[in-house]
């Protein structure tokens, strides 16, 4: 509508704000038809920011659809990245914690076979490392969700998620190795020992 003149007369007509939102929605629909949900999400977000009442439900549905498509790619990539990381990390951790288990000088006594936690420690840290693989998957999904429009193609999104999940897994495992070298990980070994002792 348009308010005109001193009397602020109401003249029926098209709403220019709604027209802009309609163009954003149409552009988003076109991107979806071309298989570009990331670009479509961007257009639908602009339409949502305008917030014309008559399009609220429609835009929300379209945003949810885009998010679901994008998230599916991220999940596939994060799972692949985590599985690849597990194939590398688990054998490494098995060898490292059982055969090497390097520690700083002040913590060397923790490796003494006579120390009551020495036999439990490699298994406890190995189990903790496996749990950290799940943490890397969760962290990758959270990071990818924050970068939801970073890549448009499904292949690119999956590939990026693979790299992010694999990289985070290596980073977290490096942190565990460093904490183990300080002797800090024996706290978790003690907890595991107490659990098995009482159970």
TrEMBL record:
Give the originating organism.
bioreactor metagenome
The answer to keyword Transmembrane helix applying to this record is: yes
Asked whether the UniProt record includes Membrane among its keywords, one would answer yes
UniProt keyword list? Membrane, Transmembrane, Transmembrane helix
Name-wise, this protein is: Uncharacterized protein
| Membrane-spanning intervals of the chain | 75-97, 117-134, 154-172, 178-198
